[in-house]
Design brief:
The complex is a heterodimer of chains A (about 140) and B (about 400).
Chain A lengths: L2 H13 L4 H14 L13 E3 L4 E9 L2 E8 L2 H14 L4 H6 L4 H4 L2 H4 L2 H25 L1
Helix pairs in contact in A: 1-3, 2-3
Chain B lengths: L4 H4 L2 H6 L7 E2 L2 E2 L1 E2 L10 H13 L10 H21 L7 E4 L2 H16 L5 E5 L8 H10 L2 E5 L9 H7 L4 E7 L11 H10 L3 E5 L11 H4 L3 E5 L10 E5 L1 H6 L10 E4 L4 E3 L13 H17 L1 H20 L4 E4 L8 E6 L4 H10 L2 E2 L1 E3 L4 H7 L4 E5 L6 H18 L1
Parallel strand pairs in B: 3-15, 5-6, 5-7, 7-8, 8-9
Antiparallel strand pairs in B: 1-2, 4-10, 9-10, 11-12, 13-14, 14-17, 16-17
The chains are: A alpha+beta (about 140), B alpha/beta (about 400).
Bound molecules: pyridoxal-5'-phosphate (PLP).
Amino acid sequence: MTINAIQDEIIEEFELFDNWTDKYAYIVEIGKKLPDLAEEHKTEENIIKGCQSKVWMTARMEGDQAVFDADSDAIIVKGLISLLLRVLSNQTPEEIAKTDLYFMEKIGLAQHLSMTRSNGLAAMVKQIKLYAVAFQAMNA
Amino acid sequence: MEQAVNKTLDIEKIRKDFPILQTEVHGNPLVYLDNAATTQKPQVVLDALNEYYSATNANIHRGIHYLAEKATAQYEETRKAVQSFLNAERPEEIIFTRGTTEAINLVANTFGRQNVGAGDEVIISTMEHHSNIVPWQMLCEEKGATLKVIPITDKGEIIFEEYEALLSEKTKLVAVNYASNTLGTINPVKQIIEKAHAVGAKVLIDGAQATSHLTVDVQALDCDFYTLSAHKMYGPTGVGALYGKYELLDSMPPYQGGGEMIAEVSFEKTTYNVPPFKFEAGTPNIGGVVAFKAAIDYIQAIGRPTIAAYEQQLLDYATPKFAELEGLRLIGQAENKVSVLSFVFDDVHHQDLGIMLDTRGIAIRTGHHCTQPLMDRLDIPGTNRASFAIYNTEEEIDKTVEAIKGTLKMFR
Ligand SMILES: Cc1ncc(COP(=O)(O)O)c(C=O)c1O
């Protein structure tokens, strides 16, 4: 599936919820389901500095696709990571690098989560794009 | 003086004084429990701001026209109000700043630069806000001086004997808070000051958290410097004050250079104005300072003993209710506390809890509260913090406890 098709799918899923408690309940649920990153990957090197919670991420190439794994010590962030990985992991670096992420905005999360909280995620998106560019350079 | 608190205190009436408390957040009535970060503003303060800009606005001092005189008079009225609020000896001992942070930086850059040298020591405590740590670190680094830190107990109280052991003739300044924003601990500042003076050190009291809760008397405390932030006292943001003993202020070099702080300027030499003007360079936040007086008057009208007793009652009501929540650990269990309740759940991240309470319109603060060294000492990444003010109610506490219960279920 293309990145935008997945974004649209998520937007549609969130249209089913009519209040924030339910949206968050869903995010918490997928957060719990996201597999933990192995402890050996939770290193200082893999950390993405958010404001209040920690996010760790690893990246690798599988065939022509970039694959990301990430984890957080906070569950809601983990749920958001899960959404982000669904959109951006297992895509080609070319697609990732040129992608315009709009689903966070559309489902209202960007507005609901204050900047300090979304900062960690913004930093994560940036990191994913940096990896994508680096992978592209390696393949070139 | 005002012992029978609740007979005279009509909280519903007080709540009506604060327009923001009538609003909703995410479809729920706002429950505002982030008062240690900043308090909400009563209508009288909003009116004073509006009135100032509608009917008074002019630049202060030196103006000869009507509005300039009026603005100056109002600005100086606030100085007198702060003087009397802190029981300072003279209005000239009150310097307006942007807040506690600027007040501390002012002292570090003037008194500190003048009096702290290589090999000297500055003492702070483990439970200081970053704004009472970093300016001293910067000073010590510049001067080759050493920053010493008073250890605390697991309950969150200063270990007094350890403090005494740190004091020596090398100590030039002791800078501690009156009340901790993270733990609520009220520190024994009077005794701290006495001991510091005995070795010839000066003392700065960070009163950011204490001033809206306790009756402060800088003369009885005998502190050399005292700082406060108006926005934590129902007043506007961008306004604060530094109290300093007059002789000390007089002997200190100026802070920033500019207009207002000078006596005479020529390209060869500038002579400085006297305190407090020596330390108030440039056009200050006049409207904010003027409206700050309305906040002080508001506090005075209710009465600080009344406020303290009511907030203590809220804390006493909330503490056991929170403590009953499964897995909750109270952070900060000092004997004497202001109305700050910090807590953690080892299995639920404070950020998750904070976000979920927010969806129900409940505002608490989560994180390290600008006290990272304290978090390190307690070996936690952050806390959840509910802090109460005069307009909070037991009903709001019940609501919060229920909301936390619901949230815990979701995460466990
Ligand atoms: C104990 C303490 N000191 C200093 C400050 C800094 O105050 P301000 O940000 O108003 O300058 C705060 C504010 O959070 C505080 O709680």
